[in-house]
Amino acid sequence: MIEPIVKRCAGLDVHKMQVTVTVLIEQEDGSVYEETREFKTFRKHRKQLCRWFNRLGIDLAIMESTGNYWRSIHDSLEAADIPVWVVNARHLKQVPGRKTDVLDSKWLAMVGRMGLVRPSFIPSKDFRELRLITRQRQKLMASVSAEKNRLHKVLDDAGIRLGGVVSDINGVSSQDMIAGLIEGRPPSELVTYAKGRLKEKTPELREALDEPIGERHRMLLSKIQGHIRYLEGQIRELDDYLFAQLTPYHKHWEILQTMPGMDKVSAAIVLVELGTDMRRFGGSANLASWAGLCPGNNESAGKRKNGRTRRGNKAVRRALCEAANAASKTTSQFKGKYQSLVIRRGHKRTIIAIAHKMLRVIYSMLKNDHPYYDPEVDYEALMVQRNAPRWIKALKKYGYMPQSAVA
C-alpha cells in the first residue's frame, strides 16, 4: 500500500475562464476530507482561491502545464507563498471514459498526495517575463524569413532572375538593386549598386535585371521591402531591450558567449530559457532530456534500436542547433565531432548530436561559473604566441637578452 506523502494536497484543472479545484486533507483519525470547488480565473477570484488554500493550510497545489492558462494561477499562488507544482500532462493521463473536470482535479490531488509526480522546471518570474521577449523575437525572425521568401517569388514572377546570379538576395547590394527596380531605374544604373566581388558579375546582373516590371509588381515589392525593414527595426528594438535587462546576469551571459558558435543573441536566448541555477535540472543528462536533444530510449529483447529525440524546449533546441551549425565551422572540438559523424549520420542528425554536446558543456559552464575551455586547443601556446614579441622586447630593454638576439 502506498503511504501518502503530502497531508494537505490540492489538484487544479485549469481552463481559460474557470478552474476546478479538489482538495484532499488527511484528518487525525486517518480519514480523508475531500472538497471540490470552482473558481473563475479573474483576479479577484484567484485571490479567493488563495485565501481558501491558506485557510485550509494546503501544503502543495498540483496543476497541469497545458496551454498558457496556468500561468496567471501559478503566479497568484506563488505570490501568496503557496507551494505549487506544474507537472507534465503526459504523465497524468486519466482513465479512458472518466474524463470530467472534477475527476481531473481529483486525480491531480491524488497523485500529488501520494508523491507520484515530479514538478516541471519553472524559471523565476524575471526569466519567465524575459522569455516573452526572446520568443517574440523568434516569431519576428520567422516573419522576416517568410517575407524575404515572398520577395524572391515576386521577383521571379516579374521575370527578374536576380536570385540566380547573387548568392544572397537579402544582401546590401541586392536590396539596393530591388529598391532601384521599385523606383523604375534602368539596368545600366542598377548594376552600379554591386559591391565587392559582385562587381565581377556585372554582365550577368545586367541580363538578370533587363526585364520590364509592371506597376503592380513594383507596388508589391515596395510593400514587402517596407515590411521587412519594419520587422528588422522591431527586432533591433527587442535586442536592445533584452540586452539591457540582462545586466544582472551579465557574468553568466559573458560565460555563454565564450562557447564556439554562440553569439550575443543565442547566448541571451539560452540563458533566459535555462536560468542560472543548474541544480534545478539535477544533471546534464536531465537537462538534455528536458531540452529534447538527447536520443530517445528504444530497447527491446536486449537490443538497443534507434530512438527519436523527444519533444522538448523548442527555443533552446533552435538556438543550439543554429550555434552548432556555426561551431562545426570553427577550430574546436565540435568541428572534429561534426566531421566524424556527418559521413554516416548525415548533416541534420550530426547537428543534433553537436547541439546535445554543447548543452552538456553549457551545463558545466553555468554550474561552475567558468568560461569555455576547449581540450583540443593549447591555450598556453596561444598566450605565448600572442605575448612573445612584447616579452622579448622587455627582456632586451632591461639587459636580460642581448640586443642581437633573434626574436
Tell me about this structure.
With 407 residues, the chain is an alpha/beta fold. It folds into three domains: 8-113, Ribonuclease H-like superfamily/Ribonuclease H (Nucleotidyltransferase, domain 5); 126-245, Helix Hairpins; 248-297 and 307-368, no CATH class. Helix content is 54%, strand content 9%. The chain is built from 15 helices and seven strands. The chain has helices spanning 43-56, 70-79, 101-113, 125-157, 172-183, 187-190, 202-209, 215-245, 250-257, 264-274, 284-291, 314-327, 333-345, 347-368, 379-397; strands spanning 8-14, 18-26, 32-40, 60-64, 84-87, 299-300, 303-304. A five-stranded mixed β-sheet has the order 3-2-1-4-5. Helix 13 runs antiparallel to helix 14 (347-368).
Give the topology.
Blueprint: E1 8-14, E2 18-26, E3 32-40, H1 43-56, E4 60-64, H2 70-79, E5 84-87, H3 101-113, H4 125-157, H5 172-183, H6 187-190, H7 202-209, H8 215-245, H9 250-257, H10 264-274, H11 284-291, E6 299-300, E7 303-304, H12 314-327, H13 333-345, H14 347-368, H15 379-397
Parallel strand pairs: 1-4, 4-5
Antiparallel strand pairs: 1-2, 2-3, 6-7
Helix pairs in contact: 4-8, 4-10, 5-8, 9-10, 10-12, 11-14, 12-14, 13-14
